[in-house]
Amino acid sequence: FRRNPGEAEFHQAVTEVFESLEAVSVKHPEYAEAAILQRLCEPERQIIFRVPWVDDEGRVQINRGFRVEFNSALGPYKGGLRFHPSVYLGIVKFLGFEQIFKNSLTGMPIGGGKGGSDFDPRGKSDGEVMRFCQSFMTELYRHIGEYTDVPAGDIGVGGREIGYLFGQYKRITNRYESGVLTGKGLSWGGSLVRPEATGYGAVIFTEEMLKTRGQTFDGQRVVVSGSGNVAIHAIEKAQALGAKVVTASDSAGFIVDEGGIDLDLLRQIKEVERGRISEYAERRGSKKVKYVAGGSVWDVEGTVALPCATQNELGAEAAKKMVAAGTIAVAEGANMPTTAEATSIFQDAGVLFGPGKAANAGGVATSALEMQQNASRDAWTFEHTERRLTEIMVGIHDSCAATADEYGMPGNYVAGANIAGFVKVADAMLAQGVI
Ligand code: NDP
């Protein structure tokens, strides 16, 4: 911690992984001899840069850009870019660290990295977003590449931003290098199912957890937080499997819709108009809907909870209430939305708990499928790609469950994910020598 002062989220992510790895160090003393853990915690490369751009009023604006290339034992660095005012080095490092194990769990040949900026796309015009993205890429392009580092989207970075970033990369390098970014549009190298993948994957993972208790999504009452890419597609898949999803939220408040979320309306407001969740309640035209400004979406009772907004959004008080209200499963669509204390409360109460590095790995797995299609100059059908995603998510579930069993912690998906993700990376690092 002394080497990385003030990086609270990074400390939190590392602590959680280290707790799970105690059992591994007993079984594998060779990892300690090769200082695998110490090396894993030190990113291979960290890039911090100035991003100057001009706003619509002609004023010069300055943001800070980051790319942390954390670990390339299994493949080129892979992980998203986050544009949000809260972004600083500690957030990028926590996300990059998690990404190493998540990418390992997918079984695909991808290392771990993450990046972003404290730029806030909210309230900016398309022109401003474009100029920012072009300036960001004017520095980033020299660090990335199909065989080096392949960024993607995250909070605040969707198809629009990836388009501007890709355009600038192509212009600077004079290369149509499709595999340098994922999350691209369908007509220019993108993959079907990529937009849906994280949300769908989280629901598929949860369904597998539910099956271990003889249950399914059918008939569950589901509480979802967020209303971005992950939340919208988690809602869609949960509804398709017969669940009733009753909530969605943004950073200003949440809606409760006792009739079940109207997905078309939600998508129109969030994806087309880039509006706020409060507008949903105004436009739904139903007495069964209410909007709560501020507050906690976790006050709404449900049997399954899918936190899909941001880190540390679900704390101990909320977890206690949810356990008392009969929640049977929680799966993290977002990265580290549940605090360490809340996670323990769920686990101690026997609630099925799917950690983000397993439950939300469908997004990056499908990004790797996009890279495969780019490398082979091919485009797969929706059905084929979704089948691959489903196989991968079921595989991740089974590998977490089997690893938890093997290390004497049956049903502990946190430990299972951390250990299964870690061992593969550690073995590759051992094989590749002290680098
Ligand atoms: P989006 O930008 O599409 O949506 C983010 C959502 O979370 C918005 O509803 C946003 O509300 C809300 N949110 C963001 N910050 C806060 C905050 N501080 N407090 C409350 N609500 C907040 O992002 P994604 O859906 O892509 O990402 C959501 C989560 O999923 C993140 O943790 C991300 O790292 C993770 N994830 C995403 C993947 C992907 O494929 N997109 C892959 C794996 C993980 P508002 O509009 O008010 O900011």
Q: What quaternary form is this?
A: single chain
Mean pLDDT: 97
- Proportion of residues in β-strands: 15-25%
* Helix-residue proportion: 40-55%
The helix tally amounts to 16
Protein name: Glutamate dehydrogenase
Keywords: Oxidoreductase
Subunit structure: Homohexamer.
Family: Belongs to the Glu/Leu/Phe/Val dehydrogenases family.
Keywords:
alpha/beta, 16 helices, Glu_DH, 48% helix, 435 residues, five-stranded parallel beta sheet, single chain, Rossmann fold, binds NADPH dihydro-nicotinamide-adenine-dinucleotide phosphate, Glu/Leu/Phe/Val/Trp_DH_C, five-stranded mixed beta sheet
Description:
The protein is an alpha/beta fold and 435 residues long. Among the domains are: 42-179, Leucine Dehydrogenase, chain A, domain 1 (Rossmann fold, 3-Layer(aba) Sandwich); 196-359, Rossmann fold. The chain has 16 helices and 13 strands. The strands form three sheets. A five-stranded mixed beta sheet has the order 1-2-4-3-5, with helices on both faces. A five-stranded parallel beta sheet has the order 7-6-11-12-13, with helices on both faces. Strands 8-9-10 form a three-stranded antiparallel beta sheet, with helices on one face. Strand 12 (329-331), helix 12 and strand 13 form a beta-alpha-beta unit. Helix 11 packs parallel to helix 12. The structure holds NADPH dihydro-nicotinamide-adenine-dinucleotide phosphate. Residues 153-156, 198, 226-231, 250-252, 308-310, 313, 333-335, 360, 363 line the site of NADPH dihydro-nicotinamide-adenine-dinucleotide phosphate (NDP).
